[in-house]
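hi! just following up on the protien thing from before. the input was this:
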Amino acid sequence: MLDLLPRPTGDAAFDRDIIEGNVQRLQTTPEVETGHPFLDLCVKTGLAHVDATFQGNHPKYGVKTYAGNMHDSFPPIIIAAVDALTAWGLNERAARVLTYWMHHFIREDGTIDYYGPSLSEYGQLLHTAALMAERAGPDDWWSTCYPALDRLAIHLLRLREAAKAEDGLISGIPEADTRHRTGKYFHNNAWIAKALRRWADLCEQLEACPSVPISRVRSEAEGLARDTVDAIQKTWPADPDDWWLSPQVEPVARPSCLTDGELASYANYRYWPELLSSEILPHELAHRVVESRLTAGGQFCGMTRFLGQLDDWPLTDYLYGLWALGRKNDFLLSLYGHVVYHQAEGHLTAYEQVTLPPGREIAAYCLPCQLVAPRAARLVVG
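and the predicted 3d structure came back as:
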């Protein structure tokens, strides 16, 4: 892979001495030993970017335009950071940043203080808390974060209750950039269903008493999962070789390929990967999503095609979906493609968007893109 094409070039997001110093101070559990020295370096470099990007415990999305305060509460920052940190045993740091985020960015009504949070991100935040408990134990962060998590769960359950007046699917924002296109998106509902399951299990395991009884949370989770899969089966074409799998219930125009316009590109880049990572799909439908991406021009060397460029910051969801399906070769292609052709040669900065090779920066560095390697490579070492 390293010898295939010219690698991206461009400026480093941070002083290289700062990143190198952070790498040297890392004390991970387990040690970063994937069997591939270059991948090991990408993992360590990614982890080193967490402290470089955050301002203390305060999150930042990236640099340049992404350093603006409006981006600070973007949920994927904390979702990616906590996953990456706890994956490698950096649990104290993860607890500090998660506690800060929950305290500052969850409103009293359980909504996220951000200009365009997707419904899937609400679900992923509850899942993040469950990951934290599984990998680090409850400790002090749990009692501090619990009230905000409980409010978040209440908010999702209210949305689900209102949705049952129709088909049970919750309508909302699919992605910050497409916040004007609300609808009943499958990835949103899938992640809410998964999150409510996780919340019920977490509260039961930790003997918590959430505001909504655990039995009801579990019932709503199972009901929403069924409603979502039923809606998908009614919406997607009966022909198993038809690649266009609409990401929402509402009728939409059919694209010619996965880079044909906004909806197709966002489906390929985020909506489908998050549907996969929710793991609510039966395996035959999940494999169909992957085959559609491969058939209709959705990737290049495993990286995600978005309109006329490459955009990999949500790639971890696709990688997690591939791993769960046992598609190891597809997983390795996307992981290796990302670290080689989405990160700049030398300093390994991961820009949010790059051109097709020879790669150059289109959109600035962002932390979730930098953390693709640490998150996914943890699966490789078992």
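The chain has 14 helices and five strands.
Residues 1-68+259-382 form one domain.
cheers
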